[in-house]
Design a protein that fits this description.
The protein is mainly α. 61% of the residues lie in helices and 10% in strands.
Amino acid sequence: MNIKLQEAAKYVENLIPYRDLVQMFLFENSDDMHLFLSEVRDRLNLIVNAAMIPRKSLNSFSPFRTIEEIKKFGFRSYMREVIDAPEPILIYLCLYHNIHQVPLGTEQTQKNLSQYLPSIQELGRIYTSTHLYTFSKSRYTNKISSSSAEVSDSFWLTSSLDQSKLNYYEGREAEIKTKLKNLEANLQQIMGEKQKIEKMMENYRSELGKLRERKYHIDNLKKKLDQKQSVYKSLAAQNTDLTSEARNILLKVSEFSKKKSKIFADYVKVAKNLVILTKDKAICVYQDALYQNEKLRLENDYRTYISLKQEIETNLEQAKSLTQQAREEAKSTLETASKMNEINLENGLPQNYKENFSKLPDSVESLNSEINQCQIIAQCAYDVDEKVIQEFENRKKRISQLQRDLEKKNKKLVDHQNNYENMKNNWLQRVDEMIDGINVKFSALFMQLKCAGEIGLSRPDNSEEFSKYGICIKVSFRTGEKLQELTAWQQSGGEKSVSTMLYMIALQEMTRCPFRVVDEINQGMDPVNERKVFDIIVQNSCSKKQAQYFLLTPKLLPDLAFDDKTNVICVFNGPENLPHSKYNLKEFLKRRKALNEKNF
C-alpha cells in the first residue's frame, strides 16, 4: 500500500486500526486462510489477523457527495484517492473502514469549521489539517453530536511514493542519459583527435632529440679538435726529439714488465700453496668435529651403561634376597606340611602327592589363585542345617517367580503408558481442532464489530493435570490495543457481555439442541455494539436451519433489522395492567379506531 501524498499518511494511520494496517493478511480462499492461521498463529505463536477478501466490486463503493460538491469547504479529496493499493485491499478498506466516505480537508476547513458545520455534518467523519471530527446522530433524540481528536504524525507510513514525481524524474533521467550518450560520443571523437596529435608530438620530440644528439656530438668534436691543435702547437714549439725519448720510455716499460711477470709467477705459486693448505685445514676441522661428536656419544653411552649396571646389580641383590627368603619360607612350610601329613622327606614324596603336584599350574599367579580358592572352600566347610538350605532354595524359586511377574507387569505398564499417551494425544488433537473451529468463527464475529478476538486452549505446566485445562479467551475493543485475556476485572460489563454473546454464537455450530435462551445479554452494552450483536444473532439464527432462539430483554433499540422469521413478543405485567383473562383484542382495536377518527 502506497500513499500518494505523504502529508495524508497520518490520516490513513488514524483511520485504519493497527491490526488492519500492520497485522492483517487477506485471502481469497478460506482453506488458505485456515492453513495460514494454524501455522503462523498456533504453531509459531505470532500475533496476526486474517480475513477473506470481500466479494464485491470496487465500483460499488461511491461517496454520498462528490468531491466537486464539497471542495468549496476546503476538502481536497476523499481518502480513497490518496491510497494506491491492489483492488482487493481497497475493497476491504472501503467495506470495513469507509475510506471512500472520509474527505480530507485543509487549513481552510479548520479555520471555517463552525461556518461549514451545518453543511458537512452528514459526512459523518472528516479530517482537517490537524484534527479528526466525528458527527453522530442520536437514535432517540435525532440530535447530532460531534467529537474531535488531534491527529498525530504518521509512524508506519513514513515513506511513500509520489507517482507524478517518479514519472518526472524518470523522464529527467532519460533526458540526462541521452545527453550523456551524446557527450560520450563527442568525447570519443575528441579523444581520437587527441591521440593523433600526441602521435605527431611524439614524432616531433623524437626528431628534436636526434638533432640535439648531433649538435652535442659536433660540439664534442670541436672541443677535441681545439685540444689537438693546442697540443700540436705546444709540441712544435718545444721541438723535442721525440724518437730518443720514446726509446727510453720503451726500455723502462720493458724492464717493468719483466719484474711484474716474475712477481705474478711467484704470486701464483703462493696462491696454489695457500689453496692446498686451506683445503687441508677445512678437512682437519671437519674430522675434529666428527671426533668430538663421537667422543660425546661414547661418553653418554658409558654413563648410561654405568647407571644400568648399578640398577641391574641392585635388582640382582634384591632378587637374591627374595629368593633366599622364599627358600627359607618354602623349607619351613615343607617341614610343617610333612609333619602334619606324617611324611618322611628323606625317603622322598609318596606317589599320590607327586601326581597331585603334577596337576598344579606352573605359574605363581595360578598357584596363588588355587590357594585362595582352597582357603575359601575351607572357610565355608562347616555344618549347615538342611532346613536353611531348603528355605534358601524356596526363596530362590520365589525370587525367580517374582522377577518373571515383575517383567510381565512392567511390560503391561509400558503398554498402558503407550495407550495413555496415544489417547491423550488424540484427545488433545480433537480438542485443538474443535477450538480452532470455534476460534475462526469467534475471530470473524469480532471482526464484524471492528474489534479483535481469539480463543485458545489453556494448558497447565503439568500436562497430566486434566482438571487445569481450560479455554483462554482474548479480546481487544480499542485500536492499537493488544489482545488481553477476558477476566472478571479486566474488561467492562458491556465488553464482557459482548464477548460472552459472541462466544455462545461461535459455539452454536458445535452443538445441537431444540432451542436456546439468552436472558438480558444486551445489558451494559453501548448502542453500537448492541445493534451489531443483535444483527449477528438474527443472521446466525434465521439464515440457517438453527434451533429456536429466545432473547429475553427489557428493551430493544429502535430501527433494528428484523428477519421474516423473527417474532417480537411483548409481555405486559404489573399491578396497573389488566389480567390476561380480561384481554379483548377486538375491543382494543375498536377503541384505537375510534381514537384515530376523533383525532382526524
